[in-house]
Amino acid sequence: MILQSDIQDGAELVTDADSTEKTLSIIELISSGGTAGQIIIAMLFVLLIVAIYIYFERLFAIKAASQIDSNFMNQIKDHVSNGKIDSAQMLCAQVNSPVSRLINKGITRIGKPLEDINTAIENAGRLEIYSLEKNVSVLATISGVAPMIGFLGTVIGMILSIFEIANSGGQIDIKQLSDGLYTAMTTTVAGLIVGIVAYMAYNHLVVKTDKVVYQMEANSLEFLDHLNEPI
């Protein structure tokens, strides 16, 4: 009976040890990756912070640019029809949005040929689009670079593992070998996560920017059509 109980206690201890070894936190996983893995993880973390900052900064800027009074164009057309050019320009200055700046550019060209007005609005529109897309290309770069940095960590980890095998003298140290594998796996996962986040953020901002561009085009055409109407 005593022998059987000792065997059971020993089995429980082995089971507890196995369950403890299988439990691994994210911090332990990163720390087990070695110096090279930690450096690459730190680089990816910085890229993630940059991507998140750019995303929210541009999102708020684009959201503010898209907000415009639905009655804005009606007021502009009334002022222009009544010859109140100064009032129309004042209204554009008060609204202060990409649409209002385009319309204001067209108002300042009233009296010139319609083609000149259209060209001035198009040039101003390019500047507004450039302002809306500020730093968005950085997100696209991060979405492509982050997985590559992660794969670099994978290659470094595999090199470390192969190096340990080559210098083991026939006796492989599992601990040192696992450090290289940890470096390979953790950096790959981290790179893919950062790349996916940056890619999704980039595409979302592109969609939001396109909506503002369409809004600018629609209001510009409405303004030009009003100028082209017979008096």
Automatic annotation (TrEMBL):
The keyword Protein transport applies. Keywords: Cell membrane, Membrane, Protein transport, Transmembrane, Transmembrane helix, Transport. It is a multi-pass membrane protein. The chain crosses the membrane at residues 36-56, 136-160, 180-202. InterPro entries: ExbB/TolQ_transport, MotA_ExbB_proton_chnl. It is found in: Cell membrane; Membrane. Its main location: membrane. Residues 96-217 form the MotA/TolQ/ExbB proton channel domain. Belongs to the exbB/tolQ family. PANTHER family: PROTEIN TOLQ, TOLQ-RELATED. This is MotA/TolQ/ExbB proton channel family protein. It comes from Psychroserpens algicola. The lineage of its organism: Bacteria, Pseudomonadati, Bacteroidota, Flavobacteriia, Flavobacteriales.
